[in-house]
Design brief:
The chain has 2 domains: about 5-165, P-loop containing nucleotide triphosphate hydrolases (Rossmann fold, 3-Layer(aba) Sandwich); about 170-280, no CATH class. It is globular. The N and C termini lie far apart (about 60 Å). The chain contains 10 helices and 9 strands. A 5-stranded parallel beta sheet has the order 2-3-1-4-5, with helices on both faces. A 4-stranded parallel beta sheet has the order 7-8-6-9, with helices on one face. It is about 40% helix and about 20% strand. The model is unreliable at about 1-5 (pLDDT under 50). α4 (about 95-105) packs across α6 (about 120-130) and α8 (about 210-215) packs across α10. α2 links the parallel β2 and β3.
Length: about 290
């Protein structure tokens, strides 16, 4: 292996059309990645050779954006000595993809290539094209409920040039009434825990406030639940590391995403942040919300 081949990182960026692939690639470019869009898959071996042997610093951090049609060949062919490859897949709920296309009046790529006759069919066909290639080694970001600012933060947390990506964990609190996070690897329902919503004086606060956090976490049933949950997660995270998984998303849900789920997510984040690269997101927290 040549000296130039060391510390090369390639991010293969793909995903459902309309899920934010172009936006994610732009963020990677802002982070200093050399971004290549629509690279001919027939020339992939030449690109791999160039990445392995070039002394050009542009090839130290590369982001390759590819379509559903070429994704399998890129996934198979991006292998080289000294090259570390990560796959980023952007996804969103079908109804959100439909809405985005209709609001922007863009034409889906599979309609342009006559591989589908309607927008709904195009989305379905594209999802089937990806289905068997998206596994635990792929970093998936679901943008259904994600703003551009949140997407940028996620991209930066996964692919910062300051360090090589390692196993990381995202803890997301949410409310079932607003829909479940589509990119969760594990979903935990905490609606059985004592609910501070029924304490009128506590209702306006969230699990980010000490009064709510203590109310939820200090209950004996919560303590017993957390002891068992942490034991399970300790084992699961260790096994996923052995399997080579890069990122794991734990979603914790209660009715409105204001009290119980936020408290438990905060507890887990604080427990694991010294062991793994950990991130916390409270999807549905609204201060002074009274609808949990």
């Amino acid at each position: 292996m040549t000296e130039a081949a060391q510390h090369r990182r390639v991010i293969l960026v793909s995903g459902m059309s309309g899920a934010g692939k172009s936006t994610a690639t732009r963020f990677l470019e802002d982070m200093g990645y050399h971004c290549i869009d629509n690279f001919p898959v027939q020339m992939l071996s030449l690109l791999v050779d160039m990445i392995e042997n070039s002394t050009d610093q542009r090839y130290q951090f590369i982001a390759l954006s590819t379509s559903a049609q070429d994704f399998p060949e890129f996934q198979r062919g991006l292998k080289g000595e000294g090259i570390e490859v990560f796959t980023l897949f952007l996804d969103a709920a079908d109804n959100i993809l439909l809405h985005r296309y209709k609001s922007t009046r863009r034409v889906h790529p599979l309609l342009l290539s006559n591989q589908a006759n309607t927008l709904e069919e195009a989305i379905d066909v594209e999802r089937q094209m990806f289905q068997k290639y998206i596994n635990d080694s792929v970093i998936t970001i679901d943008t259904t409920f994600v703003t551009e600012k949140e997407l940028k933060r996620k991209i930066e947390s996964y692919f910062s040039k300051r360090s090589v990506p390692s196993f990381s964990i995202s803890f997301i609190s949410f409310g079932y009434k607003n829909g479940v996070p589509m990119d969760a690897d594990l979903m935990i329902d905490v609606r059985f825990l004592p609910n501070p919503y029924w304490e009128v004086e506590l209702r306006p606060y969230s699990g980010n406030d000490e009064c709510i956090y203590s109310y939820v976490i200090d209950k004996p049933e919560t303590q017993e639940f957390l002891k068992r949950l942490v034991s399970f997660l300790d084992y699961a995270f260790e096994e996923y590391v052995k399997e080579g998984k890069n990122h794991f998303t734990v979603a914790i849900g209660c009715t409105g995403g204001q009290h119980r789920s936020v408290s438990v997510a905060n507890y887990l984040y604080n427990h694991y942040k010294s062991q793994y690269n950990s991130y916390i997101e409270h999807r549905d927290v609204q201060e002074h919300d009274s609808n949990e």
